TrEMBL record:
Superkingdom of origin organism: Eukaryota
Domain Porphobilinogen deaminase N-terminal: 5-64
Family note: Belongs to the HMBS family.
EC number: 2.5.1.61
Gene Ontology process terms (BP): heme biosynthetic process
Name recorded for this polypeptide: hydroxymethylbilane synthase
Presence of keyword Cytoplasm: no
An example molecular function term from Gene Ontology annotations: hydroxymethylbilane synthase activity
InterPro entries in the cross-refs: HemC, Porphobilin_deaminase_N
C-alpha cells in the first residue's frame, strides 16, 4: 500500500482517476470536504464490520488498569460493535470468496439502524457477481431479531440451508469478551490467529475485527 502522500501525488498527476482514503487520516492532516474530496455514503459503500472501533485490552488480573480502561468505555460504540459482530457471525456460512460489510448505528431517536451488503462472486449459476443489501430499523431489544431477518434475506439458498442445519446457539463468547472488563480465557486471546484469521473455528469468522457506528465525524 502506497503512503497517502504518494497516492495523492499520483492522483493529481493523472495516474489515478480517484483515490479512496480514510477521512479521519485526511482530517488530521488538515484536509476537509471540498469539490475534490467527497465523503462516501456508508449506505452506498458499506464499511467493514467493526470499522473504526478502538479496543483497549489488558490482562484480567490487572486490577489497577481495568478501572482506567473502563473510564474510556463508550457504551454506544461498544453496543454497535457487538451488534455488528453478531451480524457477521450469522453470515458465517457464506463462501470464503464472498465479501460482506455492515454497520450498526444508534440514531438520534434511540432506534438502531442495521445495514449489511453481501457480494457473491460469479459462478454457481450466475455469470456475474451478485450484490445484495438489507437494512432494518428498530428498538434495541429487537436488534437480534432484525439481524436474523437480514440474514434470511441476504444469504443465498445453499448457504442458508447450511446455516440452518448447524447449531444456532448465539455467539455468547465474543459478546462477553467485548464488554469491560473483558472476561477472556487465555486460549481465546488471539482472536485473529497466526494466519490472519483464516483458521478453522467459528471465532475466526470475526476477524478482522471491523467497527461501531459511533465513528469520529469529519468535522470534529
Amino acid at each position: 500500500t502506497l503512503p497517502w502522500q504518494a497516492r495523492l501525488r499520483r492522483l493529481h498527476s493523472g495516474d489515478y482517476d480517484a483515490v479512496v482514503a480514510a477521512s479521519a487520516g485526511l482530517h488530521r492532516r488538515g484536509m476537509s470536504a471540498s469539490c475534490d474530496v467527497k465523503l462516501l455514503n456508508p449506505a452506498e459503500v458499506m464499511p467493514a464490520f467493526g470499522q473504526g472501533a478502538v479496543v483497549l485490552l489488558c490482562r484480567e488480573s490487572d486490577d489497577g488498569v481495568l478501572p482506567v480502561l473502563a473510564e474510556h468505555d463508550d457504551e454506544k460504540a461498544r453496543a454497535c460493535l457487538i451488534w455488528e459482530r453478531d451480524l457477521l457471525w450469522r453470515l458465517r456460512s457464506l463462501s470464503p470468496d464472498a465479501v460482506a460489510g455492515g454497520s450498526a448505528e444508534i440514531m438520534p431517536d434511540g432506534q438502531v439502524c442495521l445495514r449489511c451488503t453481501v457480494s457473491l462472486p460469479a459462478g454457481r449459476g450466475s455469470s456475474s457477481p451478485t450484490l445484495a443489501s438489507a437494512e432494518r430499523i428498530g428498538p434495541r431489544e429487537q436488534v437480534e431479531a432484525m439481524s436474523k431477518d437480514m440474514v434470511l434475506e441476504l444469504l443465498p439458498d445453499a448457504s442458508l440451508a447450511q446455516l440452518l442445519a448447524r447449531d444456532q446457539a448465539g455467539p455468547e463468547s465474543f459478546r462477553s469478551r467485548t464488554a469491560l472488563p473483558a472476561e477472556t480465557e487465555d486460549e481465546e486471546l488471539d482472536v485473529e490467529g497466526e494466519g490472519g484469521g483464516s483458521a478453522g473455528s467459528d471465532a475466526t469468522a470475526l476477524s478482522p475485527v471491523l467497527g461501531a457506528s459511533e465513528r469520529l465525524p469529519v468535522d470534529e
